[in-house]
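Render this sequence as a predicted structure.
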Amino acid sequence: MADKYEVIKPWHGVAKGEVVQLEKVHPSLKSHVRKLSDKASAELTPATPTATSRKEAIAARLTELGIEFKGTLGADRLAELLPDGELEKLFPAE
């Protein structure tokens, strides 16, 4: 059974922090990986799987209202395009 290892020093084709499965760790890779415990190697689930970013919420509302916008704009610039009162409807606590 292959063990799971976290990459701490990346090499070609592998990114830092990536989890790899290896049957046997080659001596040249030993200093590049760290073995994960069974608990750490379990699949992680997001705490808020349905959460969207502020920018995504504003962009969705602009699309609903039929207002054209440039996708590269930040959340603050997109908020300026919303009609008065719409930002407060989207984010009532702020």
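Summary. The chain has a mean pLDDT of 85. The chain has three helices and three strands.
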